[in-house]
Amino acid sequence: MRRGLPSACALLALSWGATLVLEPWSDERVGDLGVRREYAEAFLGGALPYRDLAFEYPPLAAPLIAAPGLAGTSPDAYWAGFAILTFALAVAVLALAGRLAELTGGARWLAMVGVALCPLLLGAVVRTHFDWAPVALALGALVAILSRRPALGFALLGIGAMTKAFPLVIAPVALAWLLGRGERSAAMRGAVALAATVAAVAAAGLALSPSGTVAAVRYQLERPVQVESTPASTLFAIDALGGAEPVVAASHRSAGLTHWLADAIATGFAAVALGAVAWLVFLAARAARREPPGPRPDGPAARALVLASLTSVAALVAFGKVLSPQFLIWIVPLLALALAWRQWALAALTVAAAALTLVEFPSRYLDLVAGEPVAVGVTALRNGALVAALALAIVALMRRPRVSGGPARSTALARPARRRRSPRSATGPPPRSRTSRASG
Questions:
Q1: Distance of CA 87 to CAs 29, 126, 297, Å?
Q2: Are 118 and 332 in contact (CB under 8 A)?
Q3: DSSP 87-139
Q4: Contacts from 252-255 at CB under 8 Å and sequence distance 24+?
Q5: Which of 147, 111, 177 is nearest to 309 (CA)?
């Protein structure tokens, strides 16, 4: 067993335990675990998603939701089963974050500690949502790609996307990075593996019920601006400045906002997210092109792939029209690896975003729905921290490695500086080699 992993897992278990028994981390008064328990009961009773009941998640979410019910679907049994499942998935995320830190020149133990302490930043949402599964699959995909197993890596991205869609945004970043390295064959194998995986799982859903599968996609696309999102913070700001007041309406199992500008603002933020991802694709390819030819990526190039990939996920969180508290689990790897790379400002912003989420949810969620200024302000600060973290990560990727005449100056993705020539070798004849002395 890898050194330090048992200690990190023990620390994770302690922080996980806090979400079970200690306030405010154990507060779960607002949540939809009961809905998932009903799904599990139906699935274990023989019902199929899309065909026998409406199901808004991708197909591979169904077995994850059903699994905790194998030991019982009573409220207490399912609650315990879900906590055990999510803890196991969090352990996988912890180990994979540590491995990515190793592959990118970071401190493995800092990455693992960052994951282990995240339950204290997010509270009970870490054990009542299955988002750890697609996060683990996304990290596993990056490990596989950096280990020169692109087909496996992109297949894992496809499985993650068919569990919860967000890992799919990593695919264009990773493909551009491989092409930047000149690995066209690897990029092709990865693209084929991704397409085949997504197509196979989607086909299974369509085979169960074409109309039910289409309805699940439409359900997600038609969701209104959710009250905790950055577009919602913008609508609340318009209200505070004297504009029209947004109206809260229950929709799609959450609180949405209706406003005459809501669709336009959501579309604008979606365009910003798309632009951010496109820029990250370019930056990943540029970083890969700078790397000297070799069988394995060096520290800066590997780090650029991981940072650009995780930042693309953060762009979805920061600018999407839906931002549920469990989405902060998606940025746990960015937090952990920022610590591992000692990018302290980026780590601080991601920690602030997670901590402010706990301040708002669930204790102030109903106040937010009611438009209370304190809750609205806390949520706006959280969203601002997410946007600032995204900007800081992009700046780190844009920073060009520098070589100075003196000691190397630290940059986020810099390569080691070249060794300076000694004064003698710079002004006089080069020293004679042993061979020349022997033959002279």
A1: 20, 8, 32
A2: yes
A3: HHHHHHHHHHHHHHHHHTT--HHHHHHHHHHHHHHHGGGGGS-TTHHHHHHHH
A4: 252/56, 252/219, 252/222, 252/223, 252/224, 253/32, 253/35, 254/223, 254/226, 254/227, 254/322, 254/324, 255/226, 255/227, 255/368, 255/369
A5: 177
Considering only CA atoms, which of 12, 17, 59 is closest in space to residue 39?
A: 59
Residue 207: HSE in the Cβ half-sphere, 13 Å Cα cutoff: 7
Convert the pLDDT of each residue in 365-384 to its tens digit.
999 999 999 999 999 999 99
Question: What DSSP letter does each residue of 188-250 carry, written as one string?
Answer: HHHHHHHHHHHHHHHHHHHHH-HHHHHHHHHHHHT--EETTSHHHHHHHHHHHTTSPPPEEEE
Query: Given this model, what pLDDT does residue 161 score?
Result: 97
Q: Angle formed by the axes of helices 75-103 and 332-340, to 10°? A: 30
- Collapsing DSSP states into helix, strand and coil, what is residue 399? coil
Element spanning 337, H or E: helix 332-340
pLDDT at 288 over 70: yes
Closest CA to 69 of 47, 90, 50, 95: 47
Question: Collapsing DSSP states into helix, strand and coil, what is residue 295?
Answer: coil
Residue in this structure with the two tokens 């809905």, named with its chain if needed:
35
C-alpha to C-alpha distance for 112 and 28, rounded to whole angstroms: 26
Cis peptide before 58 (omega within 30 of 0): no
What's the pTM? 0.89
Torsion angles phi and psi, residue 247, rounded to 5: -110, 130
Distance CA 191, CA 160 (A): 15
Write the pLDDT tens digit of every residue in 158-179: 999 999 999 999 999 999 999 9
Look at residues 62, 80, 78 and name the one whose alpha carbon lies nearest to residue 16.
Answer: 80
Residues 12-65 pLDDT 10s: 999 999 999 999 999 998 888 999 999 999 999 999 999 999 999 999 999 999
Q: Which of 127, 115, 9 is nearest to 79 (CA)?
A: 127
Phi, psi of 256 (to 5 degrees): -110, 165
**Residue that is written with structure tokens 């591992």 in the block:** 340
pLDDT band for position 250 (50/70/90)? confident
Phi, psi dihedral angles at 114 (to 5 degrees) = -60, -45
Cis bond upstream, residue 24 (ω within 30): yes
Query: Is the Cβ–Cβ distance between 290 and 301 less than 8 Å?
Result: yes
